[in-house]
Amino acid sequence: MWLWLARSWLISGRAETKRLDRRRPVASNWMHCLAAHHLISASMVSLEELTNLQARAEADLLAAVTVGAVDVVSAAALGARSPIAEARRGLRDVDPEERRELGRAISEVADAIESAVRARRGVLVAEERTVHLATDRVDMTLPGRRPPRGAVHLVMQVWEEVVDIFTSIGYTVASGPEVETAYYNFDALNTPPTHPSRLESDTLYVEYGDHPEGVLLRTQTSPVQARWMEAHDPPVYIVSPGRVYRRDAVDATHTPVFHQMEGLAVDENITFADLKGTLSYFIEQFFGPGAVQRFLPNFFPFTEPSAEMHTSCHVCGGAGCRTCGATGWIELLGCGVVDPFVLETAGYDPSQVSGFAFGVGIDRLTMIRYDVPELRYFFDTDMRVLEQYQ
Ligand code: DAH
Predict the structure, then answer these.
(1) With a 6 A CB cut-off, is 262 part of the ligand 1 pocket?
(2) What predicted TM-score, i.e. pTM, was given to this entire model?
(3) Last residue of a domain, one of 108, 136, 164
(4) Closest Cα to atom 8, ligand 1: which residue?
(5) 53, 105 in Cβ contact below 8 A?
(6) Which of 226, 240, 278, 328 could be a cystine partner for 188, CB 3.0 to 4.6 Å?
(7) Which tens digits make up the pLDDT trace of 153-176?
(8) Total count of domains within the chain
(9) Residue 302 CA, ligand 1 centroid: distance in Å
């Protein structure tokens, strides 16, 4: 019976050894001890065998080069299925006189292995920490990584600045739709049906809703004038910045989308002099004191008289240079006294009130102020250009 048991332990011990070999080479040694020990416990563990266990454990600990390997040796040497544990369990079969001595011997070996485990573990933890500190060092002197920060686009900065100039003298900001009817974009602004700007070669039409006169992407911010006057009684002091669309091919000074700001003042006794005074004030605020203006006659359907306003070239101060095409002047905006037809169409009485209006290109103002040679720089997403103006 004992022989049979011992053989089966041995066999199962070997089988297990093979299986564990592949995964835990350190533990495998211990399976031999375990197998041997089953034989021992069947009789009794000898002091010599205990000494061997300790020697083997100490050798395995020395061979262990990671904390994990130490844990494996420790579990194999001292765990529930270790020879030491088995030997302890076997004590109950030992004569009481010998039990004490053998028990103490087992405890001494266990204590010795435990302190060897602790010592080896301590050494390896320290070593691993040293390696870790050396390889995983944080350089506190490195600059932090900044998340990329957004910034207001240069054209939008100018947009806000020109709006501020006008709101600070009492103007209200108005807005209107970018998809506009031909009525507000042209008819209400006294633009005859035959006007060339209405042609599909100039204006982008869209199919939208039931508007027989046509729906389009607004070509100017001027329709906001008509919409505002229809909805509000005079006096009117509004500016209306916004996006406008034209069927233009992209070149240095044209893009199919750009930005304008419309201005409209309607009150009693408004004259061309008020227009000149207001725009001169605006130019001085925007370009700084000393900027000279001139007004040249022009034609716009919605103003009479109409003018275009020029300012002295900010680059050469009027002497003539490349920026101003050697004229000393830069064309800035269109303006004029609101045509009585426009007032009437909006429901105002031209005998009671009069007004002036102007339309200025915001992109153009930006190009002039910052000496940007190409309009398309604003729309290309080249960060090297845009980052200069944060
Ligand atoms: N809407 C004109 C354009 O896009 C600019 C303009 C000129 C607006 C004269 C006005 C004005 O209000 O009175 O070219």
Answers:
(1) yes
(2) 0.66
(3) 136
(4) 359
(5) no
(6) 226
(7) 999 999 999 999 999 999 999 999
(8) 2
(9) 8
